[in-house]
Design a protein that fits this description.
seven-stranded mixed β-sheet, disordered N terminus, Rossmann fold, 4 domains, nine-stranded mixed β-sheet, 39% helix, single chain
Length: 957
Amino acid sequence: MRSSNRLIFAVKEMGPKMQEVANALRLDTELSADSAAYIEELYEQYLTSPTSVSDDWRTYFDKFPKGDQPHGAVREQFLLLGRNANRMTPVVSSSVSTAHEHRQIGILQLIAGYRNRGHQKAKLDPLGIAKREEVPDLDLSTHGLTKSDLDTVFNTANLAIGKPEATLGEMVDAMEAIYCQSIGAEYMHIVNTAEKRWIQQRLEGARGQYGLSVEQKKNILERLTAAEGLEKYLGSKYVGAKRFGLEGAESFIPMMNELIQQAGAVGCKEVVIGMPHRGRLNVLVNTMGKNPAELFGEFEGKALHKKGSGDVKYHQGFSSNVMTAGGEVHLALAFNPSHLEIVGPVVEGSVRARQVRRKDIGGDDVLPIIIHGDAAFAGQGVNMETFQMSQTRGYTVGGTVHIIVNNQVGFTTSNPKDARSTEYCTDIAKMVQAPIFHVNGDDPEAVVFITQLAHDFRHTFRKDVVLDLFCYRRRGHNEADEPSGTQPSMYKAISQKATTRTLYADTLVQQHIVDRATADRMIERYRADLEAGKHVANALVLEPNKKMFVDWKPYLGMDYTDDWDTSFSLERLKELGKIMHERPEGFELQRQVEKVIDERLKMQTGEIPLNWGAAEVLAYATILDDGYLVRISGEDVGRGTFSHRHAKLHNQKNGQEYLPLCHIKENQPRFALWDSLLSEEAVLAYEYGYATTQPHALVVWEAQFGDFVNCAQVVIDQFIASGETKWERVCGLVMLLPHGFEGQGPEHSSARLERFLQLCAEDNMQVVTPTTPAQMFHLLRRQVVRPLRKPLIVMAPKSLLRHKEAVSTLNDLAVGQFKTVIDEVDTLAHDAVTRVVLCGGKVYYDLLAKRRSCALENTAIVRVEQLYPYPEQRIAEVFASYPNLTDVVWCQEEPKNQGAWQFIAPQLFEGIAQTERAIKLKFAGRKVAAAPACGSPYLHAQQQNQLISDALAIEAE
């Protein structure tokens, strides 16, 4: 056993059997209370999971009797001594029988059993049809106890019921009330002792009594009336219309109300909510304060979107302000599509942006609440990614309250064995040791109590917490669906069941808290308010404090334009270049990195041309200098996947990090650079949420390789490409996607340019293929300096990062703007040019080198740096400048069925037609293929040589 000077034991205070074993183990002769507490924690871990303790402790605990005899007699004696050290008297004297000692140990094991597995006996299912297995750990006989011991007084150990001794019967009654009624608490998987003890004190101190006042109970009934009232009204007025109603889960509305009020009471200023479509209309009206008349207009098809497609009513977001005991709180319900759970990381990113604005990262100013469906929570991998982000430096928001509206059925899958491989849908949350509180939705008082506890846990420990609201779905997946075809037993029980509101009203009438007439008047009053088009949310602020949220007006209403001056003072550029080279005294760089940084100083002060990394970092410096926040995240962004950025430096002596961009000037805007966890979907969604919340910023996400963005396709399709047209949510997020065919095989060549172009319409985003450092510099600056927020998709280079031709001068950065099209750079006689090769990206340099080596005077090479919005006018000007043009070739490295060809060909055909000249349009590139590229370097080189030759109309070598 591991030795420690703290482990000193009082052999003289042990019973004879105890002394014998202790002496055999050669233990010392005095005990400290701290040591006993430490051992107690180890022993509780051992009882829960033997493998959770170290090998030496497990070997020690394993020595004690198994089977019907209680575990660890000596160890439990130590625990009892430790728990009562403050009393300075032995718990068990030599006069107490060994049998009683063993029963006392059994008490400890029984307490551990209730804490670990009491939730498995809890009455969670409002329908009463869920089958639950017997839990042996809650049986007296498992721990060497019998019913005859119920009247015997035992030490209560650390069971927080307010007294040191009680009969076994009292303890069992208390633990049944605490752990086996309407609340099932899972928290013993938490390693942190303080968190675990805190939860124990709150749960066990209440002993199943929730302590709600008469006024609180009336408020619960009023909110249940609102929840049920809206659904009944919509069901009768819009028969058969989809609304994904909340019927069966009405306690969700009192839960939300309580959560918001509790947050406001401790100083929260903003609450950001993400939720699926079920119950969304109810939240919009009864929690957020949307005017019912507006909702009715949407049902009747009268509400038209100002621009674009719009979206269905149960995907819409909303914002409002409500009053709480702690002051005004801004509520924001995030827009989201039907793609399950994807709104979660979007909300987290939005919360982080708000916390940054309030200078309270991970604090109390902004609270995220994410609502989930039970089947989706267990089944969607993005939840695992989001949990994994929750405590990382670049993505933490100080804990999220997760609410599962647990219908106990996923669409038509009612058998949990088909929906997941775990007992509960919430088990995924254990990966971050979040406490999980299951609660019966038909006990609204328990719902309110556990909501308070969950909020206070997040407030105290800054960690995620899960509320699992066990309820049911009174109707099918939607109101046009007939659920009894797939769940006959469940819906037979539902059809015979009174609503939660009815049951609670009956309870309050029986308790003489309200009379029947008062309860009925609540229903009538709510319906009358709906019909009158009045706001029905509690504490709604009709004239909100506008300082609580960002004003987006400067970024709205501007028509798209490519032209924008992004020049910057040459002298200030040189100053910033010098600052980029500075670092703390004694800061030792790795040899190759030091060479890069030293060479970069010459580039950034104008001595030699700039490469890509130098220009990019300088762009960030100028943006910060202009007063804009900059946030960059992704896998390996500090260094850059291809070791070109080096914006984060590492001291070789002690691992200390230093970011020169954080030291541009005093009181500069925040610069954040975060190497992310290995996730695309959740991280990209997070950055989207951040960018849609913070307009005065450059927000960048970089893929490690461009093709990795495939893993985040749902974010691109449902948010980045269509968020503005569906929800009028503008977003300036930048995506850097390394793209280029360098013979690395199918998986590291293409960022799937064709997919982005297929999604382009209505000026929804920008897709670019920059070829020079200066272009990248101006492109990044344009993204923030221009008061227009559109997603920017950059097909970023790989080999061009160090290409000898892909360089720019410092003056190129100081003067000018981003060019959507770059015409021929060599001196060619325009009237001699009969062939124009259009291209984008890295292939340009291959074409240029070949054209020069062949001394072709009739072929101009033109770079289309921006594919969308398509630069129609600039390309028309290029065509017009070559009077004898007969052939236009689009050249790309990608296969013909991929890349830009299928997008740009119709544009070029139309543009050529408008010239009214006999110009032919041709394609040069790889043949159609199922994979983006070949796996053989030899074959790659052959294909590359052929497409270059095809483009230039020369014989392939």
